[in-house]
Amino acid sequence: MPSNPLVFLRGWTRDPVAVGLPIASSSWTARRLAQAALDAAIPGSGPVLELGAGTGPVTRALIEAGCPVDRIIVVERDAELCSTLERRFRDLRVLHGDALDLGAILAAAGIPSVSVVLSGLPMRAVPPRAAARCYSGAFRSMPSGGAIIQYTYGFRSPVDPEEVALKLDATFVGREWRNVPPMAIWNYRLSEA
Fold first, then answer.
1. Which of 56, 109, 123, 150 is most exposed by smallest CB count within 10 Å?
2. Is the peptide bond before 182 cis (omega within 30 degrees of 0)?
3. How many domains is the chain built from?
4. What does the pLDDT look like over 45-64, one tens digit per residue?
5. Cα–Cα distance for residue pair 56/112, rounded to 1 Å
6. How many CB atoms lie within 10 A of CB 174?
7. Adjacency order of strands within the sheet including 116-119
8. For the whole model, what pTM was predicted?
9. pLDDT digit string (tens) for 93-102?
10. How confident is the model at residue 165 (pLDDT cuts 50, 70, 90)?
11. How many whole angstroms separate alpha carbon 126 and alpha carbon 52?
């Protein structure tokens, strides 16, 4: 079942800051994000965790790249988008909640570990303390060396390690120009120094 752009647009009109833009990621962007996440995943440490899945273009790309749907968990704040994801992807585990409270959501769902976190959250619009809480919860859910793959529409890192008070190594993965607007992909890991 293809994604319905009107569902995404309605989500954006209800909460534009949480959704980011009124259009979903392009198929090119979704494929690049899925590959970046799967490349960074720690084998045997749990499912892929996608934050802010929207209508599921990146979820679909993960599945098409070979990740079984039952090895993906999504967290989505918008109830209508959650329902859309559940209808679109049979056997997908959808957690309805605010990913900024990720530690509590994962604990309540009984998820002890994930292999990688793929974040579509609009981190530039998130207050630094909330971003730190979200990223701290994400890193606690992964083994040492775990990564957060974050995408953004900006030209600089969407998460400033000094603002979130975490020692992060930020690596620019690349930019997808075939997206409206162009999308940048970042890889964050906890610094070992």
1. 109
2. no
3. 1
4. 999 999 999 999 999 999 99
5. 24
6. 11
7. 93-96, 72-76, 48-51, 116-119, 147-152, 183-190, 168-176
8. 0.87
9. 999 999 999 9
10. confident
11. 13
pLDDT, tens digit, for every residue of 5-26?
Answer: 544 444 445 455 444 454 667 8
Q: Which two tokens stand for residue 171?
A: 């690596």
Given a contact cutoff of 8 angstroms between Cβ atoms, the answer to whether 51 and 99 are in contact is yes
Q: How far apart are CA 150 and CA 188, in angstroms?
A: 8
The one-letter amino acid at 64? E
Across 37-143, where does the E strand assignment appear? Answer: 48-51, 72-76, 93-96, 116-119
CATH number of the domain that residue 144 is part of: 3.40.50.150
* Cα dist from 105 to 49, 82, 172, whole Å: 12, 15, 28
- Domain carrying residue 89: 5-190
Give the span between the Cα atoms of 81 and 23, in whole angstroms: 13
How far apart (Å, rounded) are the C-alpha atoms in residues 180 and 123? 18
* Residue owning tokens 């965790």: 49
Q: Are 47 and 114 in contact (CB under 8 A)?
A: yes
d(CA 158, CA 156): 6
Nearest to 139 by CA among 163, 165, 162, 157: 165
What would the mean pLDDT of 25-49 be, rounded to a whole number? Answer: 95
- Is the CB of residue 61 less than 8 Å from the CB of residue 27? yes
Please tell me the distance from the alpha carbon of residue 186 to that of residue 189, in angstroms, as a whole number: 10
